[in-house]
């Protein structure tokens, strides 16, 4: 028995030694092969910690190297090189834009991270006409597209709430904001893409050309290709925005008004909302940006201890339309059932409204509160279940909203293309509910990471037990079984596309959907 154990131990030491030798032999070979690739940009093999961080601030995986490409060809050459190394290589590739992922999705442990912002130098090309559009790099920030577009009097139709994100990043998810009820998400406003597949092929795709890849990449979580260029639909840009907030105490009334505003021809161009639980001095905080319509009544309003629901609206206009727009807004607001004394209005330039979150970012950065853990949870809840969801979550699970905003607003499924990879609930109208929490580092209290994660878990468990048919937006799962449940009947299509465009599972390993060299289960 002792002799067998000694043999087994010696055998294991020999195996591990061989593995170590193989790794040590392969490692310099991999590095030297990357260094000799014919690219215009360059690899960085040191000071890699920046590529091992993201906005979520919860996961950190060091890559082997960071590629700073000067061209799309650099990306294709690198991916093709790894593809040609075959399944024996563990190298993977993650495209990193602004690093705004939440759970390490833009990271590649021991792999190659591509700094997509290096492609920003590729010039934007605006096409003016009856159907205007702009061709932009996948590494371009939406805020830069807005700034350049305004010089032509044009702007994209659909946005995210935060504009300092890359085109490739948001199009790989969906891109949702308060304009989605009318224009759909950002992925519904793209005419054409240029993509580098997991085989290193550069492919131009659209609805009419390589359409399967086109629809797969949109909302595809980076699984089928790296978006290197996109053709974005534009519309005439307004000069100004009427920005309005009103409060409700009754959730059913709040959602009824939201749904009325997002169905048919709405006066407003943007409709969102948020939940306020147990906050004090709420309206006084608004006064720095908004003017109360009735200052006396507003000063008497007390929010202490109550759960309130804020409807947030925006109307775009040009200065010569002010009188007409004011009448339209007055007429529309008169049909709502909000608390009359809580009507607050602001008038700001279009760019200031769209870039509003960046203003908050600057303030938080100055206080050291931006680069903290962000255990966000984003859910898509069917309309028929939103009351049940709200009663349990806002009534029992959450006791306050001091850790960050909770957004809630309806979107119309008719504005989403079901050929894309995004999974939404099976109803014509569903709600985005976004718990945008920030955790205080090292805190063990209600503002600490553990407490927020437990709350998130309780919310997800309730949705599961109550069978609400909820889907995660910006999804994150630990097992392939959970991913299969997320995609449901669309899992087979997702796997087929993976097998077609990235058969070695080289791309976007941080999503944890597929593992390199591990067979996919149908």
TrEMBL record:
Needed cofactors: FAD
Keywords: FAD, Flavoprotein, Oxidoreductase, Signal
Name listed for the protein in its UniProt record: cytokinin dehydrogenase
Reaction catalysed by this enzyme: N(6)-dimethylallyladenine + A + H2O = 3-methyl-2-butenal + adenine + AH2
Organism (species): Gossypium arboreum (Tree cotton)
Top EC class for this record: oxidoreductase
Signal peptide: 1-20
Gene3D superfamilies associated with the record: 3.30.465.10, FAD-linked oxidases, C-terminal domain, Uridine Diphospho-n-acetylenolpyruvylglucosamine Reductase, domain 2
Presence of keyword Flavoprotein: yes
All residue ranges annotated as the FAD-binding PCMH-type domain in the record: 59-237
Membrane-spanning segments: none
Superkingdom, taxonomy of origin: Eukaryota
EC number: 1.5.99.12
A Pfam family assignment: Cytokin-bind
Family: Belongs to the oxygen-dependent FAD-linked oxidoreductase family.
Keyword Lipoprotein in record: no
């Amino acid at each position: 028995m002792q002799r067998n154990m000694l043999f087994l131990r010696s055998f294991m030491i020999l195996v591990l030694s061989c593995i170590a030798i193989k790794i040590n032999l392969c490692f310099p070979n991999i590095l030297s092969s990357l260094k000799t690739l014919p690219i215009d940009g360059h690899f960085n093999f040191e000071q890699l910690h920046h590529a091992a961080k993201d906005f979520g601030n919860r996961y950190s995986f060091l890559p082997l190297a960071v590629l700073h490409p000067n061209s799309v060809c650099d990306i294709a050459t690198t991916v093709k090189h790894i593809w040609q190394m075959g399944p024996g290589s563990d190298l993977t590739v993650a495209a990193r834009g602004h690093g705004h992922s939440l759970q390490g999705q833009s990271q590649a442990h021991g792999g190659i991270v591509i700094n997509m912002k290096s492609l920003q130098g590729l010039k934007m090309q605006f096409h003016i006409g009856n159907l205007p559009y702009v061709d932009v790099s996948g590494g371009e920030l939406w805020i830069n597209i807005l700034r350049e577009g305004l010089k032509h009097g044009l702007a994209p139709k659909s946005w995210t709430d935060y504009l300092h994100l890359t085109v490739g990043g948001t199009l790989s998810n969906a891109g949702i904001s308060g304009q989605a009820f009318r224009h759909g998400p950002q992925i519904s406003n793209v005419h054409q893409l240029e993509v580098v597949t997991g085989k290193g092929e550069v492919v131009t795709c659209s609805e009419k050309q390589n359409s399967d890849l086109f629809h797969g990449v949109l909302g595809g979580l980076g699984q089928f290709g790296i978006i290197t260029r996109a053709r974005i639909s534009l519309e005439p840009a307004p000069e100004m925005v009427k920005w309005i907030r009103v409060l409700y105490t009754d959730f059913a009334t709040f959602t009824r008004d939201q749904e009325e505003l997002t169905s048919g021809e709405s006066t407003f161009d943007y409709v969102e909302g948020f939940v306020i639980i147990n906050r004090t001095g709420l309206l006084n905080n608004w006064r720095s940006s908004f003017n109360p319509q009735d200052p006396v009544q507003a000063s008497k309003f007390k929010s202490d201890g109550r759960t309130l629901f804020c409807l947030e609206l925006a109307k775009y206009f040009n200065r010569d339309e002010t009188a007409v727009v004011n009448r339209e807004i007055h007429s529309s607001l008169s049909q709502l059932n909000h608390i009359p004394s809580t009507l607050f209005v602001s008038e700001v330039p279009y760019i200031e409204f769209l870039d509003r979150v960046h203003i908050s970012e600057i303030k938080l950065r100055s206080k050291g509160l931006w680069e903290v853990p962000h255990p966000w949870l984003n859910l898509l809840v069917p309309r028929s279940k939103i009351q049940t969801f709200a009663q349990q979550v806002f009534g029992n699970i959450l006791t306050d909203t001091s850790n960050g905003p909770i957004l809630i607003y309806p979107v119309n499924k008719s504005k989403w293309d079901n050929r894309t990879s995004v999974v939404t609930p099976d109803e014509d109208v569903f709600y985005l509910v976004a718990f945008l929490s920030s955790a205080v580092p090292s805190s063990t209290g209600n503002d600490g990471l553990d407490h927020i994660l437990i709350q998130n878990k309780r919310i997800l468990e309730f949705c599961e037990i109550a069978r609400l048919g909820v889907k995660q937006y910006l999804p994150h799962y630990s097992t392939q079984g959970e991913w299969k449940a997320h995609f449901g009947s669309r899992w087979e299509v997702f796997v087929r596309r993976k097998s077609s465009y990235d058969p070695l599972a080289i791309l976007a390993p941080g999503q944890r959907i597929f593992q390199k060299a591990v067979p996919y289960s149908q």
